[in-house]
């Protein structure tokens, strides 16, 4: 009898342990950058339903959001992310260098593990009272510009490089002539054709721009709140999707979007945090989650949330909200994220020098 009771107890404990293990295997933490809250809330609901229909288990999906570089640092310091969906490749590379992500992660999924693209635009107050039409207007002395801190925010780094690339492309000529940059890109000029980080015209332009920045929030969403809710500034430099969300949340009667004639192509990447999924037993569901981002259903959700889908049908469906903008890439102008990160955003880099000058 005692033996039977012990057997039953062992069986019950084993069942509980197995149930707990199965639950843990389908519980994911997605550590993402600031503006993607709404996107992944919708993605997670749809993925969970799809996964349950196929596998009989409903995964529990959790989200964490903040400035991209700050989020990367949190993962390195112990935040147990299963997947990271960050604003720029350099942040995922930092996690890789910390030994948490295996080398070659960008080759694991299509389009260098970037399921969508985006770009940088301007949000202004209704009626555009300061007459902002392009980058050149942002250095006028009566303009207050809102942008996050490039030391903590991936979006801010895209903002910074979009402005720098614009000014470097015109090489000190008429700062309103963005055709100069387009011509340079079409001619195949890259970071070695004109040394971007030492370009005097770009440095002067971006220095003037940051003189017009009254506050640096840690992330893109914080800057949106500063501009739209706290009513600070004349123009917000921001992600395209964030600008549209501001219109939806705060009212089209209060703000409008200005598309610059030229901007940067942003390709936010995603990756599995290998060390964490292997220790937690979540690799299968993590892989399914990231692969699902490329499905037609997910790509339609991406387009509906004002990101630019990779899927051509989804992109065509949402083209009305995603107008064509002349875009240059970080590889063409800056020689890739590895070079840009070191030159502009490392300790004592170009941004630190500019910010110190403006103090």
What are the main properties of this structure?
359 residues, 4-stranded mixed β-sheet, 2 domains, alpha/beta, D-Maltodextrin-Binding Protein, domain 2
Describe the protein's architecture and organization.
- With 359 residues, the chain is of the alpha/beta class.
- The protein folds into 2 domains: 169 residues, 3-Layer(aba) Sandwich (D-Maltodextrin-Binding Protein, domain 2); 175 residues, Periplasmic binding protein-like II (D-Maltodextrin-Binding Protein, domain 2).
- The chain has 17 helices and 12 strands.
- Strand 1, helix 2 and strand 2 form a beta-alpha-beta unit.
- The longest helix is centred in the first third of the chain and has 24 residues.
- It starts with a helix and ends with a helix.
Q: What about the largest sheet? A: 4 strands, mixed
CATH architecture descriptor of the largest domain: 3-Layer(aba) Sandwich
**pLDDT average, as an integer?**
87
Please identify the top-level CATH class of the largest domain.
Answer: Alpha Beta
Q: Unreliable stretches, pLDDT < 50, 5 or more residues?
A: 1-24, 170-178, 190-194
Tell me the name of the CATH homologous superfamily of the largest domain: Periplasmic binding protein-like II
Shape: globular
Q: How many helical stretches?
A: 17
Strand-pairing-aware structural class:
alpha/beta
Q: Give the strand tally.
A: 12
Strand content: 5-15%
Radius of gyration: 23 Å
The helicity comes to 40-55%
Task: Fill in the CATH topology of the largest domain.
Answer: D-Maltodextrin-Binding Protein, domain 2
């Amino acid at each position: 009898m005692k033996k039977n009771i012990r057997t039953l107890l062992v069986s019950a404990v084993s069942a509980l342990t197995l149930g707990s293990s199965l639950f843990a295997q389908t519980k994911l933490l997605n550590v993402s950058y600031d503006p993607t809250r709404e996107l992944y809330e919708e993605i997670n609901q749809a993925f969970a339903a799809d996964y349950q229909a196929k596998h009989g288990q409903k995964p529990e999906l959790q989200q964490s959001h903040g400035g991209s570089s700050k989020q990367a640092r949190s993962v390195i310091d112990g935040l147990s992310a299963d997947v990271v969906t960050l604003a720029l490749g350099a942040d995922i590379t930092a996690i890789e260098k910390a030994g948490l992500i295996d080398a070659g992660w960008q080759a694991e999924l299509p389009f260098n593990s970037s399921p969508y693209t985006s770009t940088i635009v301007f949000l202004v107050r209704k009626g555009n009272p300061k007459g902002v039409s392009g980058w050149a207007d942002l250095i006028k002395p009566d303009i207050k510009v809102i942008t996050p801190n490039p030391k903590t925010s991936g979006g801010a780094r895209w903002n910074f490089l979009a402005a720098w690339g614009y000014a470097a492309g015109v090489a000190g000529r008429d700062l309103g002539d963005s055709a100069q940059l387009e011509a340079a890109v079409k001619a195949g000029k890259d970071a070695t054709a004109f040394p971007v980080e030492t370009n005097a015209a770009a440095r002067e332009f971006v220095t003037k721009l940051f003189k017009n920045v009254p506050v640096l929030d840690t992330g893109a969403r914080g800057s949106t709140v500063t501009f739209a809710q706290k009513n600070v500034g004349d123009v917000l430099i921001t992600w395209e999707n964030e600008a549209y969300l501001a219109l939806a949340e705060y009212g089209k009667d209060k703000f409008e979007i200005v598309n610059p004639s030229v901007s940067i192509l942003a390709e936010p990447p995603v990756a599995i945090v290998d060390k964490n999924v292997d220790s937690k037993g979540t690799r299968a569901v993590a892989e399914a989650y990231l692969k699902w981002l490329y499905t037609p259903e997910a790509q339609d959700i991406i387009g509906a949330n004002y990101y630019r889908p990779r899927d051509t049908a989804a992109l065509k469906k949402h083209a009305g909200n995603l107008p064509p903008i002349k875009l240059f890439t970080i590889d063409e102008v800056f020689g890739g994220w590895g070079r840009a990160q070191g030159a502009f955003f490392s300790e004592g880099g170009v941004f630190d020098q500019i910010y110190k000058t403006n103090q």
